[in-house]
User: Fold this.
Amino acid sequence: MKKLVWFVATLAMLVVLAPRHADAADYVGSKKCKMCHKNAFTAWEGSKHAQAFATMEKEGATGKPECVKCHTTGYAGSGAVTEDQKNVGCERCHGPGSGYMKLMMKKATYTTEAAQAAGLILPGKDGKFCTDNCHNSQSPNFKPFNFEERWGQIKHELDKPRAH
Assistant:
């Protein structure tokens, strides 16, 4: 019995003293990105990414985890998909935005490195991020992925780059 009490007390201490990840980034939604990135938002809004969940609904695939994981943004994999999680939003490719958004809102200028340290993901132009995360053979509707061709469908630039 003493061992059990000792074990429970030790476990409780570990939980209490464990480092907290209070600074873990949260998803803010593509509409928040639009505040500073109107042109990029407009490009996204006209893309298939912005309609990804509706496409899945038409196909009757909303119950397939292998489909839902790539047609949503910030979905943890269980429970109902919320309106904010539907579609391939900005943060699906650029990471949860609360950290870098806070940095960008606070400072008139910041470095790209600081934004990346705050959680910003800048996928490379080689397409590896896309194929590692969604456009791969694990997708039920996989087709060979040509990054240059597909980038032409979603290409977006910052409205007024402030990072340097």
Q: What stands out?
A: The radius of gyration is 20 Å. Residues 4-22 have pLDDT under 50 and may be disordered. The chain has ten helices and no strands.
